[in-house]
Amino acid sequence: MSNETCIIGAGSSGMVAVKALLDAGVPFDCFEESDRVGGLWVFGNKNGKSAAYRSLSINTSRARMQYADFPMPETLPDYPGHADIAAYFQAYAERFELGRHIRFGTRVEHVEADGSAYAVTTSDGVTKRYAAVIVANGHHWLPHFPNPPFPGAFAGTTLHSSRYVSPVEPYDFRGRRAVVLGFGNSAVDIACELARPGGAERVFLSTRRGAWVLPKYVLGRPLDQLTGSMSFLPPSIGMRISELFYGRVVGDLQAHGLPKPDHRLGGAHPTVSSDLLPMLAAGRVRPKPSIRAFHGDAVEFADGTRELIDAVVYATGYQVSFPFFEPAFVSAPENELELYFRTLHPEKKNLFFIGLAQPLGAIMPIAEAQAKLIADCLAGRYVPPPADEMRREAEAERASVARRYVRSRRHTMQVDFDDFMRALKKEHARGRKRAER
After folding, report:
1. d(CA 56, CA 43)
2. Structural domain contains residue 231
């Protein structure tokens, strides 16, 4: 059996695994379906799995998103666009000479347990046994649609936000009437872009529940840099301060026609936009409740109103999928997969995951910290706790998420950036002490 590790993917999570294993002297093979690093941030990625639209920019600031050992250029804006992010990832790979350790244009087709190892079959027809597998295939590439579908038939155009490119691609929205379904960042970005002059004739934003809409800047600083400075406070106190601050800075969302959030600030993934409220105030974006049914060229909403509609954009999220695993081996029904620190599988030895989290903050530093823990584990410098303890901790994390966040597929992997990073650092240190013993 090979003592090598198989890394699946070389996006923003997989390539930090490559670097971490190189630094630790752990042998590996890394397989990337595309022809470059960067994953979904590569606009028009050849692997067909990028959800980047032309105007996409990050909604966490540059300073909070960058890798610890490779800062982003200070010449970049606070919230860089996808081209800047893709260039940053490419520069990271070049700086640490990662490209020569990645098998580009090669897809992992199948992974199965083979005794104490894993048999991995790739798209070139080769099957090889590995001592460990690191899964870094991302979770924003397989579109999710409402299930069951809305009643009735729609005569217009439908597309998922993952296929949206611009107001004229792949569908020409100019002069048309559109519904954007959802209230996350992509939904709001797309609705606001379509509503600008020269875009759609009318844009409706359809949402089934309220959400807290946060501006990108507060007091002249990126929002997440201010919230990060309060991370030392107990969550309840930080929440009260934030809600008081919100009321004074943002105001009442219901005054803009939006539904009142049915949860406390921090109880769901927030929507970050400095454009939505002005667009609502100007009447360019019109809020609507959830869709009740389709009637040919008309959409009926839950409040009983109907509108003639040409196109519906489903900004309804993604499904977590591991197409190389048999579902009975590992799967994530309803996007739930219990993992120890969102990294180690309690039942499958030497099966690791990177980036399978939805942080209130950026995923990149989390992935970097996960990769370093995994590298130490494979090098024998970190020892995890017994499987039953990992299982209990994973179950406790799941219960904690259920208590804090709105019950939704979107929140099954939710973590608070600062809390998670501190806890992972402590666990890394504990695991090193276990290794020493």
Report:
1. 9
2. no
